[in-house]
Amino acid sequence: MNQSLKKRIFTIFVLGLGICTGCGVQAQEKRAFDPDATMHALTREDGSGTRQAFADLFALRDEKGVDAIHPGIAVTNATSVMMMSTAGDPYAIGYTSLGAMNDMVKPVAIDGVRASVQTVEDGTYPIARPFYLAIKDDLPPAGEEFVEFVLSREGENIIAKQGYVATGTDLPFQTSHPQGSIMVTGSSSIAPVMEKLKERYAQINPKAEIVVQQSDSSSGLSDVANGTAAIGMSSRALKPSELKRGLTPIAFAKDGIVVIVNPANPVESLTMEQVRSVYRDPQQTWRALENHR
């Protein structure tokens, strides 16, 4: 790892879905929302960093630290699937990255505070987590420079435009034009902003090829540890076992996790305890959820 990248690290610690969302919302508005209907909770797959951060932030772990999200809750295996599933079900409730939000779904305030770049940055919105890149010491020159670009002032501007709080170095960037193909794999929450960063870097240094493949945080970290990818994308903190495999985490952004419902749902705000209740016992009605304030 070159000294420039070490210095930069030291200075910091949706798919385009072809559906008519307006048509779906209009059809749902014709049916009155039934508060006595059973809610349909959605979660992410086990390897998802967003799921693991969600479980941590909402205290959804047992006394041994094991994920305590109810096993009967339906699983969606990508950010885009979570968004589409919630958009298509008036009684759905799920969660997603702040940067992934669009008008397909409706955000719900937590304890009266709505997620935004400002509330995540100032700490008033409590459900937030860092985004990480994970690398090993043998990162090729093109990979080192791409990480430098992500952390640079120009990279920060791109990250901010995508709806995240950038936490890079704020240093200017200048390429030395290294060559090579660099594989970046992992979190589906991070992949869209990484595509934007990749596109701009390709304009600056066309001699390097950055390939972004989305899966989940755990898979991306495993790919780097195994040597099948150069850079991993993780939307959760790395585990001690992953650090022992030689991975170095680099925080480059901060993201809010937004609880989402269908636009037909009249709910505007939930408490932390209400959300915990949903994910401990999904077999309850929307009206019954009022008892968990």
What's the number of domains? 2
CATH homologous superfamily annotation of the largest domain: Periplasmic binding protein-like II
Number of helices: 11
Question: What fold name stands as the CATH topology of the largest domain?
Answer: D-Maltodextrin-Binding Protein, domain 2
Shape: elongated
The counted number of beta strands is: 11
pLDDT < 50 runs, ≥5 residues: 9-29
- CATH class placement of the largest domain: Alpha Beta
**H/E element sequence:** HHEHEHEEHEHHEEHEHEHEEH
Q: Key terms for this structure?
A:
293 residues; alpha/beta; D-Maltodextrin-Binding Protein, domain 2; eleven-stranded mixed beta sheet; 11 strands; 22% strand; Phosphate ABC transporter substrate-binding protein
Structural account:
The protein has helices at 3-10, 21-29, 49-57, 79-87, 117-122, 141-151, 153-161, 191-204, 217-226, 240-243, 272-280, and strands at residues 40-44, 74-76, 92-97, 106-110, 128-135, 165-166, 180-187, 208-215, 231-234, 248-261, 269-270. The chain is an alpha/beta fold and 293 residues long. Strands 1, 2, 3, 4, 5, 6, 7, 8, 9, 10 and 11 form an 11-stranded mixed beta sheet that branches. Helix 1 (3-10) runs parallel beside helix 6 (141-151). This is Phosphate ABC transporter substrate-binding protein.
